[in-house]
Write a structure and sequence with these properties.
A hairpin with a 3-residue loop joins strand 2 (about 20-30) and strand 3. The chain has helices at about 5, 55-60, 65-75, 125-145, 190-195, 200-220, 225-230, 235-245, 265-275, 275-285, 290, 300-310, 370; strands at about 15, 20-30, 35-40, 45-50, 85-90, 95-100, 105-110, 145, 155-160, 165, 175, 315, 325, 350-355, 360, 365-370, 380-385, 395-400, 405-410, 415, 420-425, 430-435, 435-440. A six-stranded antiparallel beta barrel has the order 1-2-3-4-6-5. A six-stranded antiparallel β-sheet has the order 15-14-23-22-19-20, with no helix packed on it. It has about 450 residues and is α+β, with helices and mostly antiparallel strands. Helix 4 (about 125-145) packs antiparallel against helix 6 (about 200-220) and helix 4 (about 125-145) runs antiparallel to helix 12.
C-alpha cells in the first residue's frame, strides 16, 4: 500500500462507535507497518489517533477485541498512552483508537544509543530513574493480568530533562496466556521465544525488560561480547546461536567465553565496575539463570526497588568525574575502593540520611520530593547542591522550594533557610524540609540502612 493510500487527509472526519461524538484529522505525526498516527481534534480537544492500514486489520484478527478490552479496563498507569476510545470513519473498512497527545519534549528511547549529535546524554542518576519508572509501569500492567509482548526501545518515549517516560503501542497488550499477536523485536526477545518454543507472556516480558535496562545503563546488548565480536557475517544462524540456543552474558561470572573485548567493550566494563553489588547481582541473575529458567528472572518490584535506591546514590569521582554508586548493601563501604573508570579511590561525597533513604550529594545535582517522601512529586526539585565558586570542596544546599526550612548545627541555635537561600553542608547538620527531617553526615559515619 502506498503512502497516499494509507494516509488520512487533513479535514477527514471520524466518529465514535456509537456515532454520538466526532472529530477531525489535523496532521500526520508518523507512520509504520501497522498504521499511521495523526494529531486530531475530538469534541474540541486535542488527541492522537492511531489509524490502522486495512490489510493489518485483516491480518491481526484479535486486534479489535484486544483494544475493546483495553478501553474497558483503562490504563494501568498514567505513563501509558493507553487506548481511550475506538473510532470509525463511515464507509472505511478499517478503524482506529484515540489516545493522549504526546508532549513534544519526549523523544524516542533509541536516541540513548544514537550516534552524536542526535544521542541523548543522561546522567547515571537519570538513567536509573528512567529504569525505575519502566519497572513500575510494567509492574502495574502485569499485576492486572496483562502482558506487553513487545518491550523494546521503539515503544517508549523519554523526557530527557525530567527522566520520565511514556509507553506507546499499547495495542500489543494482551491478557497473559492468550494467543499472542506478535513475537517481539529482535534482540529483545527471550531465548525461548527466539527458539519459537513459546509465545510472549509476562515471563518473557521480564527478560525483555532486563535487556532494556541493560541498554539504558550501558548502551549495549547484554549478550553481545566476544562471541558477537567474532561473528564475520550476522545471519539467521548466528543470531539463533547468540540469542536463542547458546546465549551467554557478557559478564557471566562462571564463563568468560563471551566476555568483554578491549577496546570495543571498555566503556561497558567501566560502567559495570561503577555499579553497586545489588544491580550487578540482578543483571547476573537475569542473564545467567534467567536465560533458560523463567522462574528465576528478576521481578518488576525487585528492579524498581534497586533503581530507586541507585538514583539517590550516584556521585562523581573526585579525580576523573566518572559517576559511581554509593554502596547499597548492609556492611558495604559507602564508597567503592576504586572508581569504575580511572581505578583510583573516588573520594567520599556528602550524604543525606532520612527515614526513607540515603542520598549522595554531589555538586549540581538536584533533589526531588519523591527522593525524601513516599508519594512525593518526582519532577518537583526542592533543593540543589552547589559548590562554592572559589573553593570546590565546600558545598551548600540551596532551597528551591516555596517553604522555609529549619536548619540546626550542633552547638548553634536553629536557623531558618528561606526559599532561594543556601546553607553550607556540614557534618551533623539537621534540616526540617519537605515535611521530613534529614541529617548530613560524613560517609564513614553513615549507615548503609537507616
Amino acid at each position: 500500500m502506498s503512502s497516499a493510500e494509507a494516509d488520512l487527509a487533513p479535514g477527514t472526519r471520524f466518529e465514535s462507535r456509537n456515532g454520538l461524538r466526532s472529530g477531525v484529522v489535523e496532521q500526520l505525526l508518523g507512520a509504520g507497518g501497522q498504521g499511521a498516527v495523526y494529531q486530531v481534534r475530538y469534541e474540541g480537544a486535542p488527541f492522537a489517533l492511531k489509524w490502522y492500514h486495512p490489510y493489518y486489520v485483516q491480518i491481526d484478527t484479535s486486534l479489535h477485541d484486544r483494544l475493546t478490552q483495553a478501553v474497558a479496563r483503562g490504563a494501568p498507569d498514567a505513563r501509558f498512552l493507553w487506548p481511550l476510545e475506538l473510532v470509525n470513519i463511515p464507509g472505511e473498512q478499517s478503524f482506529g483508537y484515540l489516545m493522549a497527545l504526546r508532549d513534544a519534549n519526549y523523544v524516542g528511547m533509541r536516541d540513548l544509543i544514537a550516534p552524536p549529535p542526535q544521542r541523548v546524554e543522561l546522567s547515571l542518576a537519570q538513567r536509573t530513574q528512567v529504569c525505575e519508572h519502566i519497572a513500575h509501569c510494567f509492574l502495574q500492567l502485569h499485576s492486572r493480568g496483562f502482558c506487553y509482548q513487545d518491550i523494546n526501545f521503539g515503544n517508549i518515549f523519554l523526557h530527557p530533562e525530567r527522566a520520565d517516560i511514556l509507553i506507546c503501542d499499547n495495542d500489543n497488550v494482551n491478557v497473559d496466556g492468550a494467543d499472542a499477536s506478535i513475537y517481539g523485536t529482535r534482540k529483545f526477545m527471550a531465548p525461548e521465544v527466539v527458539r519459537r518454543e513459546v509465545l510472549p507472556s509476562t515471563n518473557t516480558d521480564l527478560f525483555s525488560m532486563a535487556v532494556l535496562f541493560f541498554y539504558i545503563l550501558f548502551g549495549w546488548h547484554p549478550l553481545d561480547g566476544r562471541r558477537e565480536a567474532d561473528v564475520r557475517m550476522m545471519n539467521a544462524e548466528a543470531e539463533m546461536s547468540l540469542y536463542g540456543t547458546e546465549p551467554l552474558f557478557i559478564f557471566d561470572p562462571e564463563n568468560n567465553a563471551n566476555g568483554p573485548v578491549s577496546p570495543m567493550h571498555d566503556a561497558i566494563l567501566y560502567r559495570w565496575r561503577s555499579l553497586s553489588d545489588t544491580l550487578r547481582a540482578l543483571f547476573i541473575r537475569s542473564f545467567t539463570a534467567g536465560l533458560f529458567s523463567p522462574k528465576d528472572r528478576v521481578l518488576e518490584w525487585e528492579w524498581r526497588a534497586a533503581f530507586a535506591d541507585s538514583s539517590r546514590r550516584v556521585f562523581a569521582c573526585v579525580h576523573c568525574g566518572y559517576e559511581n554508586l554509593v554502596g547499597l548493601e548492609s556492611g558495604d563501604t559507602l564508597t567503592p575502593a576504586a572508581c569504575g573508570y580511572c581505578g583510583t579511590a573516588p573520594g567520599a561525597p556528602a550524604v543525606m540520611v532520612s527515614n526513607r533513604a540515603l542520598l549522595a550529594l554531589t555538586p549540581g545535582s538536584e533533589l526531588s520530593e519523591d527522593q525524601l517522601l513516599e508519594g512525593g512529586a518526582a519532577v518537583v526539585s526542592i533543593a540543589r547542591i552547589d559548590a562554592h565558586p572559589e573553593q570546590a570542596n565546600i558545598l551548600g544546599l540551596r532551597n528551591l522550594s516555596a517553604e522555609t526550612w529549619r536548619a540546626e548545627v550542633p552547638g548553634f541555635s536553629a536557623t531558618p533557610i528561606e526559599p532561594g537561600k543556601t546553607i553550607r553542608l556540614l557534618h551533623g547538620l539537621k534540616l526540617d524540609m519537605a515535611g521530613t527531617s534529614v541529617r548530613i553526615v560524613n560517609p564513614k559515619d553513615a549507615p548503609a540502612h537507616e
